[in-house]
Amino acid sequence: xxxxGLVVAGVFFDGRSAQRHDVTxxxxxxxxxxxxxGCERRDAVSVLRISAPLxxxxxxxxxxxxxxxxxxxxxxxxALLESQGQGxxxxxxxxxxxxxxxxLLLVAALIAAGLYWGVPLAANGVAAEMPASLVxxxxxxxxxxxxxxxxQPSTLPSSRQDALRVAAQRLRSAEGSPLAFKLVFRxxxxxxxxxxxxxxxxxVLLDELVALADNDDELMAVVAHELGHVRHRHGxxxxxxxxxxxxxxxxxxxxxxxxxxTAPTVLAQAHYSREFETEADDDAVRTLRASGIAPECLATxxxxxxxxxxxxxxxxxxxxxxxxxxxxxxxxxxxxxVSAGR
Length: 342
Hints:
- One of its GO terms (cellular component) is membrane.
- By secondary structure, the protein is α+β, with helices and mostly antiparallel strands.
- It folds into two domains: about 10-95, PH-domain like, CATH 2.30.29; about 115-340, no CATH class.
- It contains twelve helices and eleven strands.
- The protein has helices spanning about 75-85, 90-95, 95-130, 130-150, 160-170, 205-210, 215-230, 235-255, 265-270, 275-290, 295-310, 325-340; strands spanning about 10-15, 20-30, 30-35, 40-45, 50, 60, 70, 150-155, 180-185, 195, 200-205.
- The strands form two sheets. It has a seven-stranded antiparallel beta sheet. The protein has a four-stranded mixed beta sheet with strand order 8-9-11-10, with helices on both faces.
- Helix 4 (about 130-150) crosses helix 9 (about 265-270) and helix 11 packs antiparallel against helix 12 (about 325-340).
- The termini are far apart.
- Residues about 255-260 and about 315 have low confidence and may be disordered.
């Protein structure tokens, strides 16, 4: 029995054939009642996809099974929906610029919050659980990328390299235990005096930084800083964050085939954040003090690096030379930590 009330005409296609059916539409509570020659159905309005009103264009009702109904009397159909409140909120939302703008801002805020808090939190968990074999693989591939794009073989004599490796054996954790890492040497015409750590504990010292330092203690301060990045898994966390953002993008746009292949490059080009640099500096102060090396050496070398950095553009690499925060500000903060005995 057809419900009483407003009735509008439409053309129905069942989605299985090209045959059209002239039908009438009416509302029975929260259900849309469709009736015509050879077809009759009731569907909850909430599960239907109804096109938004656009001038005098026909309204389209899309059903879950692929059927479609075209309603040319758009005004009559609006009145039908409004008669029992079925289209009121949606119509107002679509017609209100304030609601549209507020909705867009809400979505943008949720995305920003996810990127700012959610992604780093998830990345921290991923980095903590990453298998050692995968860490070694990423580190090896990252060094290959760097060797290909930015680095050249070291020109330091083997005896000098060996002497620095022996000096590095003095480094101890705050608890006094030896620190496990591998010290390697490279040169770079583009990076200048710099050093960086790979997630597996490989510390790369550049010849230009060795030449800048006045003594080995200053170089050990650099190594201690880079070990702070390793200890807190900063490189892995950055890589996991980049992969998470990339995954969201590829989920939206498609093509995830190259995501893991680009991870070493992302790691190689990543900047450390202010938080990461501060954490590594604090870790270095504790390591130097436990190793019997004056922590002031770190601040001294940071000031020397600040002088060499003037006029140089960042190379996009997250090593000791990273300018976030500024090197002089970091040096002053290290002095404060040393004076406070922390």
